[in-house]
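Example record

Each entry pairs one chain with its bound ligand, zinc ion.
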Amino acid sequence: MSNIKVRGIIIKQSDFGERNRIVTIFTREYGIIRTVVYGAKSIKHKNSASTQFLCYADFILRDTGRDMMTFVSSDILESFFPVYEDIAKLSLCVYLADLIYSLINQNVPDNNILSLFLNTVYAICYKSIDNSVAKAVFELRVIAYAGYMPNLSHCTMCGKGEDIVAFSPKSGGILCKNCRSAGDFNINAEIYHAIRYILTSEEKKMFSFKASEEVMDEVIKIAESYAKTYNDKPLSSLDYYKKMSSL
Ligand SMILES: [Zn+2]
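Structure tokens for the complex follow.
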């Protein structure tokens, strides 16, 4: 049995027996891993804060040779505590974490997606970014990082560069007026430029754009549809977030 040190953020937790908890950590070193925290449900457990959803920490885990490692201790770097004071923000973070869990394989590091998640949760927690904007930016970028960058340079069907009028999640990019079909999203230049900015800007500037409410409403719809197209598992946390944000 040996101990390992990993840096990561907790993206899921579930009960395991009466007293224990299984904590899923998205780590820099090993991607998504699951660990058992024995005695985690006891109020006196010394590690209760460090086994909470969104806790970002250096974790010491013990590799027991079984399929799950055992939690030993942690050194918290950031707990994103203010998210817990706002149910809409918290439910949004649960949905974003579920999307990652559903999109990427366990035990494979993906530091682009880890960094995107940390920066998005940071913005939701500490900056005045609208929840629905944070959600749209995350959805578009996470699907692109997962390998499905939409084609934004020319019509996805015929390759033409002019008369671009629509965006099609299913076709994976923009379409010209001859190739568009029912169910595609109409786009104008402003919508196109907002999507392009979101997908191509540096990560630290990904929320620094201005768009009118009408434009952003369309971008939000397109981003959600894009995420649903490339993540085929329905996520109940998305419905829950919507319910909580309409209160
Ligand atoms: Zn075309």
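The domain at 85-245 is CATH 1.20.1440.120 (de novo design (two linked rop proteins)).
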